[in-house]
Amino acid sequence: MPANVSGRAYALTALSPIRDGWTSDGIAYADVVRDRLQGWNTEPNSPMTGVPNTYLCRFFVLDDVYHQSLPGAGVLDTLSDLLPVLPNALRKSVLPAEDHLKSRYLVFSSELHGGVDGDVDAYLRGMWGAIESRIREVWGWCHGFEQVTDGAGFAAYIRKCQLPAALFFNGSNDDPLAEQLKALYLKQEFTRFAVDSQGLDPATLRLRMAEFMQRVDPPNIAGPTWSPGRYRL
Questions:
Q1: Higher pLDDT residue, 148 or 84?
Q2: Can you tell me the distance from the alpha carbon of 123 to that of 176, in angstroms, rounded to the nearest whole number?
Q3: Per-residue confidence at 5, pLDDT binned at 50, 70, 90?
Q4: CB 178 within 8 A of CB 222
Q5: What is the phi-psi region of residue 2: left when phi exceeds 0, alpha when psi lies from -120 to 50, beta otherwise?
Q6: Is the pLDDT of residue 228 over 50?
Q7: pLDDT of residue 73
Q8: What is the pLDDT of residues 15-62, one digit of tens each?
Q9: Are 122 and 154 in contact (CB under 8 A)?
Q10: Can you tell me the distance from the alpha carbon of 139 to that of 151, in angstroms, rounded to the nearest whole number?
Q11: Which pLDDT band holds residue 67 (cuts at 50, 70, 90)?
Q12: Cα gap 212→210, rounded to integer Å
């Protein structure tokens, strides 16, 4: 099984390179993307709540990355004494080198329901169909995105930007999102029912239970249910 698959959950991570340059106002394209993503935080809910079967997702702008493989314990103390007297060429060979990115990246990471590649393409097409205008808000500044005109093109574009997920922790179960939202709703409503029904006589309790079951309609996954992205009762 691929490392980015756990049961029927799939870890999708894509790094899309942001174009170098500035707007007419002198704002770097990467900062425009960052500002628009931060603007999503002021909305009642993330636009991604409109994308079916999204368990969890995250967006951010990656400006650069630094990686240094330092020598083992005790070696640094010795090097600190030697470095001032070492020739420059030898000093560079001793010290670890810094790694830098060639561009800034829009990082999109999503944990979704669907554990095979075909499901991922369908998910991305559905994402385009649900929030195309919001996708254009942030990906519109990325290299190659100007060629994307439809859901299939968006799926192909994200696939080109995709990275393997080597360490995938599945924090959800294998049920579709709609079923999980219904389960959360039933848990919430039953807790309320139990609290409100304390001390009722058996006849009244049976009547209230029948009313409760009719209201929450457990077999109906579509509703009533918990809204995607909701984080408070």
A1: 148
A2: 12
A3: confident
A4: yes
A5: beta
A6: yes
A7: 46
A8: 999 999 898 888 999 999 999 999 998 888 899 999 988 988 999 999
A9: no
A10: 14
A11: low
A12: 5
Structure tokens at 231: 């984080």
Q: What share of the chain is helix, strand, coil (3-state, %, to 5)?
A: 45, 15, 40
Peptide bond just before 224 cis, omega within 30 deg = yes
User: Nearest CA to 123 among 134, 133, 111?
Assistant: 111
- Residue at 185: amino acid letter: Y
- Helices 202-216, 177-196: crossing angle, 10 deg rounding: 160
Cα Rg for the chain, rounded, in angstroms? 25
Cis peptide before 17 (omega within 30 of 0): no
Half-sphere exposure for 36 (CA within 13 Å, toward CB): 17
Q: For residue 117, give every residue at least 6 positions away whose Cβ sits within 8 Å of its Cβ, in sequence order, or none.
A: none
3-class DSSP state of 130:
helix
pLDDT tens-place string over residues 151-173: 999 999 999 999 988 777 766 66
Structure tokens at 221: 């996954």
Pure H helices in the chain: 29-40, 75-82, 88-94, 117-139, 151-161, 177-196, 202-216
Q: Tokens for 75?
A: 């070696």
